Amino acid sequence: MNNRYVYGIIDGDPVEFEGEAVAGATDVYTISHRRLGAVVSDIDTTEPEETDEDAKRHDEVLREIMNHDGGRAVVPMQFGMAFESDRALKNVLRGALPAFRRALNDVEGRVELGVKVVSEEDADVDADAVRERVADELEPIAAQSVANDLFSDRLLLNRSYLVDREEREEFDEAIARLEEEAEGFMVRYTGPFAPYSFVDVTIGASQ
């Protein structure tokens, strides 16, 4: 198991812990370049199969990193990033260092939260009014938000919000108000997640 599977990029002190990780790995640790670090585990392939179980483990490792030492910023990698050597991985860190530092700065102290608003079956709902009500409640609290695909006719709103950890309670309370006032629709609130929707750093696995 000589390949390094990458979950995400952090800054500062390394993290290390044990748990159920991707492709049967149990040890999660950090490979550092300067003060930038890739959080990895050792696996026996550079092309891991994206099973539901391993996709869940990938996200759980990221959540563990986010909760480490009272809260850590992490730039999450998409599933499947693996490298044959420490050298290859450090070359990528070196080349993308400015981009990673910018991304880490953007998400420092923040988490991603998901909100979907779904109309009840056969309900007559003013979609624009609902979206405006949600925006009035949530946008002032969030640092950023982005729209996601409306993959169903009943899906009135599907957004991801980047929220300061210190504002999380206020955001939760705003969601509770929306849920209490909901008539003809349901609010589905998920997270916290690693901030996939708010980082734009792409790296290629290097042999």
From TrEMBL:
InterPro entries registered for this protein in UniProt: GvpL/GvpF
Coiled-coil regions listed: 161-188
UniProt keywords, alphabetically: Coiled coil, Gas vesicle
Annotated Pfam families: GvpL_GvpF
GO BP terms in the entry: gas vesicle organization
Cellular component GO terms held in the UniProt record: gas vesicle
Subcellular location: Gas vesicle
Domain of life: Archaea
Family statement: Belongs to the gas vesicle GvpF/GvpL family.
Protein name: Protein gvpF
Species this protein is from: Natrarchaeobius chitinivorans
